[in-house]
Design brief:
Layout lengths: L8 E3 L23 E14 L12 E5 L2 E3 L8 H7 L3 H4 L8 H4 L2 E3 L7 E14 H4 L26
Antiparallel strand pairs: 1-6, 2-3, 2-6, 3-4, 5-6
Length: about 160
């Protein structure tokens, strides 16, 4: 059982609007609105400018739905290329300002300059999640170390 697929409402390719109604605890978090939305992503190799020595080809892709990476049946993907892409995916899943480079820059270079792989990250739909379904930390939890009494921005960021 995967956490990110349970209770998710998706708009876009391969969406399944029935997932929420099948949850035994559907509506249990009605007292607290803990919903948030993430983009589903498609990551596709769109160009290889060097010698094709990598294990991917133009047109190879995977999708990101919540925390899950979905690969087409039988397709492999280079762990080195994946290591260049993974740090960007959570940010690409979230709403960003229209002028932010995370919004405008969609083609990412692979890690091997001799292979010259280029990968395009495309937002393909949205999916709604509930905090209680994907985190063990309660939104009701009050932790004095997270919010200083003086209202400063201190806390876990190391500046307080």
């Amino acid at each position: 059982m995967t956490r990110s697929g349970d209770g998710a409402d998706a708009e876009g390719p391969d969406s399944d609007d029935s997932a929420d109604s099948e949850r035994p605890d559907a509506g249990a978090s009605a007292a607290v609105d803990d919903a948030f939305t993430l983009y589903d992503l498609r990551v596709e190799c769109v160009e290889i400018t060097g010698e094709n020595v990598a294990s991917y080809e133009v047109g190879d892709y995977f999708e990101v739905r919540g925390e899950e990476l979905i690969f087409p049946e039988g397709q492999t993907f280079s762990m080195y290329a994946l290591s260049a892409l993974l740090p960007l995916l959570p940010a690409k899943q979230r709403e960003t300002h229209e002028n932010d480079w995370m919004t405008t820059d969609t083609v990412i270079a692979g890690p091997d300059p001799n292979a010259g792989g280029r990968f395009e990250i495309t937002r393909i739909g949205t999916r709604t999640f509930r905090h209680g379904d994907v985190s063990a930390v309660s939104l009701d939890r009050v932790d004095d170390t997270d919010a200083p009494a003086d209202g400063s921005a201190g806390g876990r960021d190391g500046n307080g």
